[in-house]
């Protein structure tokens, strides 16, 4: 009997069920919620089942020295690595807004916890573990 299970509310995978396609958006939105929304819509139009982001609590992921070091990359959004990373992080309210937008578009929304605090945050979501990273799937 082929393995099958419910990956997200109402969405089975394995067995004879179709492949579950995840569009990895990560932080490619460049800290702009409108770009993030465009990427969610494009992911849906391209046939993805889920739009996936990354969420970090920087003070738990990096030490103070790492956050304070100069960051002079041509792609930097701040003078220090911490400023750069903070620019790319959405607030909890913004993630809720993206979640609602994904629901309107008709695509699952997920965010991988990139630190221990985010991995333990199971608030208002269905949680699936993948290789030690928490993936929260909402729809």
Automatic annotation (TrEMBL):
InterPro entries named in the record: Aldolase_TIM, PseI-like, PseI/NeuA/B-like_N
GO BP terms, alphabetized: carbohydrate biosynthetic process
MF (Gene Ontology): N-acylneuraminate-9-phosphate synthase activity
Domain PseI/NeuA/B-like: 39-116
Protein name: Sialic acid synthase-like
Species, as recorded: Acanthaster planci (Crown-of-thorns starfish)
């Amino acid at each position: 009997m082929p393995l099958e299970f419910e990956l997200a509310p109402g969405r089975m995978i394995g067995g004879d069920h179709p492949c579950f396609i995840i569009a990895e958006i990560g932080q490619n939105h460049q800290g702009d919620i409108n770009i993030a929304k465009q990427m969610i819509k494009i992911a849906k139009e391209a046939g993805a089942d889920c739009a996936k982001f990354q969420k970090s609590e920087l003070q738990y992921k990096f030490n103070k020295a790492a956050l304070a070091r100069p960051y002079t990359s041509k792609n930097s959004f701040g003078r220090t690595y911490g400023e750069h990373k903070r620019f790319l992080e959405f607030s909890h309210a913004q993630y809720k807004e993206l979640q609602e937008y994904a629901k309107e578009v008709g695509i699952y929304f997920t965010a991988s916890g990139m630190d221990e605090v985010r991995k333990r945050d199971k608030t208002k979501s269905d949680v699936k573990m993948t290789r030690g990273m928490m993936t929260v799937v909402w729809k």
